[in-house]
Amino acid sequence: MPEAKASQSQQSSLNSLPSGFSKETIVPSEPQEGHWLIVQDDKGRREFPLGGEVYSIGRAPNCDIRLYSLFVSRRHATLVRRQREDGSYYYRIVDGDLKGQSSSNGILINGHKVPAHNLENEDMVTFDPRVTAKYYRLKRETGKSGPIDPFDVTLIDPAMIEESED
């Protein structure tokens, strides 16, 4: 399969983050982390939150993540969740299914054809020139919670306060 690039409209659609996340909050895996696959295909842009052990990706109606294109294999790829030594996890994408059956055209990760790849934040997966996905590993934006910090004080200069005339 020749190296393919997503169109500019696909790129901009894939580059917008899922709701509740921002690029400034990208961190290594931790409990408040979210894993997302943002797919762009003939049906448009779709967001898939990841959390399960295994996801089948392809054209078949029974795939966990269904891709809409006649040029994508029925079982084009598989996502497998793996655990790191520190207890956090990541996803590995494998061309085809877990039984060793590869897809017809393979997968490209960031423009390079590979049989399998440990996904990293913002990796671009190309299934065919019109079907792409971007992987995000993001930390949820959360506000500060817990008891009030007694040392978190705002000092006000008395000269800044207007005295009211009674």
Automatic annotation (TrEMBL):
Domain of life, per UniProt, equals Bacteria
Residue ranges for the region (Disordered) are 1-27
Domain FHA span(s) in chain numbering: 55-114
Pfam families from the UniProt entry: FHA
Task: Return the Low complexity bias intervals.
Answer: 7-19
Q: Give the InterPro entries listed for this entry.
A: FHA_dom, SMAD_FHA_dom_sf
Protein name in the entry = FHA domain-containing protein
Q: Which organism is it from?
A: Allocoleopsis franciscana PCC 7113
Identify the taxonomic lineage of the organism of origin.
Answer: Bacteria, Bacillati, Cyanobacteriota, Cyanophyceae, Coleofasciculales
